[in-house]
């Protein structure tokens, strides 16, 4: 895969990532958001935040499957930023549609409602990652510090899934699907690092 | 062995080339029509349930002084496709898809407990007990959305006087249908069935409390709690039990399903109260179902706007403790 094909793929992938928003806007105009449109908008933006988080977390495990998939890294930043994008839309829904810009009510919510605290935690992590997503930031921070900061993606993903569990009514189990996927993606990393450590030990012993 | 000569087949029987070329599309189309008509039949069953109800398809209702005025009614479509009726699934559109399974005839309501004598009321007799009124009530769900619904029924107090409860009866319990053939989700949803709700005697006797048989002047669609339910407009919607099969008069506060499931979140009284938040979300505002999303939010009223009529029932009670 040469550079040109990656650029072409990005030109296709970028608008594709905007499709969920496009569908939502279209449904808004055609009055197809259902009887409780605020809930529909909140759920849709929330789900897509989680989905983009999971997709971006899947990049590294997939790359490990074959050396030819190495170029996938070039898409990870875009996917991560889309997670932040949909997360911000989701936050915006809460700020505007649920709270009516009432700052006092929101501060009270963040302090008193655990699921909102968890959601805010996730979003703040994504904000930090988005702000330091540029090449300039990587250079300024230095690779090692940047890498450490960007481990916050795990915090954001876990916070997002807990946020989901904490909002559904007791007895409802729909969050289990994203929980399983996240668990697999995190497990894949743990397994791979364990394998790497074992490989390093073998080399050290051989030397 | 007879080998037919090609001339036996008239040329008029030759399949036109365009049809032959598109034969797969034709088959797919036929299958789609077949599936659609099956689906349409089922949809028809659900969206126009009055076709499956054996009672009169329209009630004669008289207007009531207890109706709220000056409110925009929620569309029939929203009232009948946005429901919480977990016996038929936990998604909002599940009841309208699955409640066709509910058989509303024959139906009777058993009266038991602390009464002069146990009785069984047939549903059709129950409907004729008193003139039906149209009661336009606000409905506020604990999930912070609301509707305005034109119910049809008469005050529960009229039914209670027929029940002849003893003076020792201090609470009324309502039990809903529990039948895992008609309501398969009973097996998968972790709630204590049958659905049980209850009211204090004075709440049950209040004229606002409605023994309800219809909405928009027609018999209740299955997903809205056919053929008989109660509506208690100043409390969160889950207190308005659906598809009632038994009314029991008891001495002590009866068990209520949501309180059993999450006692910290759903109290026995569950009066609509913007000052007492649900542990996980605020109750200060509500989303009006059917309104455009940029103007759907409105402040929640104390006792759902029925404070003038019911506040006296709770004089001296700590409504935060007795949430």
What is the CATH architecture descriptor of the largest domain in chain B? Alpha-Beta Complex
Class from secondary-structure proportions of chain B: alpha+beta
CATH domain topology of the largest domain in chain B = Sulfite Oxidase, Chain A, domain 2
Q: Give the averaged pLDDT of chain A, no decimals.
A: 92
Query: Helix count of chain B, per DSSP?
Result: 9
Provide mean pLDDT of chain B, rounded: 89
What is the domain total for the residues of chain A? 1
The CATH homology group name of the largest domain in chain B: Oxidoreductase, molybdopterin-binding domain
Number of helices of chain A: 9
Task: Give the CA-CA distance, first to last residue of chain B.
Answer: 89 Å
Poorly predicted regions of chain B: 41-55
User: What characterizes the major β-sheet of chain A?
Assistant: none
Compute the separation of the termini of chain A in Å. 36 Å
Unreliable segments of 5+ consecutive residues of chain A: none
């Amino acid at each position: 895969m040469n550079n040109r094909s990656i650029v072409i793929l990005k030109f296709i992938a970028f608008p594709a990532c905007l499709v969920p928003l496009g569908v939502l806007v279209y449904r808004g105009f055609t009055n197809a958001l259902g009887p409780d449109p605020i809930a529909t908008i909140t759920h849709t933006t929330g789900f897509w935040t989680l989905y983009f988080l999971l997709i971006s977390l899947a990049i590294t495990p997939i790359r490990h499957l074959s050396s030819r998939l190495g170029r996938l890294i070039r898409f990870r930043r875009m996917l991560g930023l889309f997670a932040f994008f949909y997360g911000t839309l989701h936050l915006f829904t809460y700020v505007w549609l649920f709270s009516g810009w009432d700052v006092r009510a929101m501060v009270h919510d963040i302090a008193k409602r655990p699921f909102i605290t968890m959601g805010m935690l996730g979003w703040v992590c994504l904000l930090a990652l988005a702000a330091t997503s540029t090449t300039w930031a990587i250079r300024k921070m230095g690779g090692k510090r940047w890498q450490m900061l960007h481990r916050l993606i795990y915090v954001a993903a876990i916070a997002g899934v807990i946020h989901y569990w904490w909002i559904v009514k007791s007895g409802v189990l729909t969050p289990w699907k994203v929980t399983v996927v996240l668990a697999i993606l995190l497990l894949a990393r743990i397994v791979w690092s364990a394998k790497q450590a074992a490989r390093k030990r073998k080399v050290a012993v051989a030397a | 062995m007879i080998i037919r000569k090609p001339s036996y087949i008239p040329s008029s029987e030759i399949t036109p080339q365009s049809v032959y070329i598109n034969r797969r599309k034709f088959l797919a189309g036929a299958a789609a029509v077949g599936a659609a008509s099956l689906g349409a039949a089922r949809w028809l069953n659900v969206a126009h349930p009055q076709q499956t109800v054996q009672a009169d398809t329209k009630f004669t209702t008289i207007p009531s002084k207890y109706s709220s005025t000056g409110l925009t009614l929620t569309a029939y479509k929203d009232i009948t496709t946005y429901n919480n009726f977990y016996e038929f699934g936990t998604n909002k559109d599940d009841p309208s898809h699955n409640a066709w399974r509910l058989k509303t005839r024959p139906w009777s309501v058993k009266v038991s407990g602390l009464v002069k004598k146990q009785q069984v009321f047939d549903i059709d007799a129950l409907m004729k007990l008193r003139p039906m009124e149209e009661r336009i009530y606000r409905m506020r769900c604990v999930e912070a959305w609301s509707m305005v619904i034109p119910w049809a029924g008469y005050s529960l107090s009229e039914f209670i006087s027929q029940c002849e409860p003893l003076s020792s009866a201090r609470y009324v319990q309502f039990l809903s249908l529990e039948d895992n053939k008609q309501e398969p989700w009973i097996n998968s949803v972790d709630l204590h069935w049958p659905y049980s709700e209850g009211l204090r005697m004075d709440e049950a006797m209040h004229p606002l409390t409605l023994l309800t048989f219809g909405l928009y002047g027609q018999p209740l669609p299955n997903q809205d709690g056919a053929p008989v339910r109660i509506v208690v407009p100043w409390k969160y919607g889950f207190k308005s039990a659906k598809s009632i099969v038994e009314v029991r008069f008891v001495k002590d506060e009866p068990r209520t399903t949501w309180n059993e499931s999450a006692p910290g979140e759903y109290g026995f009284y569950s009066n609509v109260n913007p000052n007492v938040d649900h542990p996980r979300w605020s109750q200060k505002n509500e989303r009006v179902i059917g309104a455009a999303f940029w103007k759907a939010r409105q402040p929640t009223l104390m006792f759902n706007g029925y404070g003038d009529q019911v506040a006296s029932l709770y004089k001296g009670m700590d409504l935060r403790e007795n949430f």
